Sequence to fold (107 residues):
Amino acid sequence: MSLVLTSSLFSQDYYYKKYAPFDENIKSPEEFLGYPIGEMHTRHDLIMSYMTYLSNVSDKADMFSYATSYEGRKLIYLIVSSPDKIQNIENIRNEHISYIDPDNKKL
Fold:
């Protein structure tokens, strides 16, 4: 017989508060969702809402849809970077793709 005990003493404090200051005009996930990250399961629609919110309020985030799940849910990725790199994302993507070309003379 074994007994497994868990303790919140060893829980991770992974939500980057130590990396402050953050933009005070942008809500944290906790503020947006109304509960701390990890406290409960976050539904897909709420995650989508927060990602959309971030891409709308920050010039350092841009959201892209790449597919639809078998349940018809939009699948997205969020790019977070400096505004100049966000504006140049297509050139960065094309340069990245060029590295997989075996005939690429830049390598």
